[in-house]
Amino acid sequence: MEIKANSINYTLDQDGATTVVAIGLYGTDNAGQYVNATVKVLPDDTDKALDSLSKNDLVALAKPKLIKFFSSDAA
Length: 75
Fold this sequence. Notes:
By secondary structure, the protein is of the alpha+beta class.
């Protein structure tokens, strides 16, 4: 299943700095099964400021978090 992004939403603090980025992800397989999810990218997920990351960087950080969520014992 190929996972693609369909939205990016930023949460800002009172100084205008990004504190959380919510990435909407979706995917569909050949059997018609699908997934829709929102994954939060947090400052602890990277050694760079969230404001300095590109759209592609943010999606690249979100996809492994989605996979980890579904492969964890908590799922």
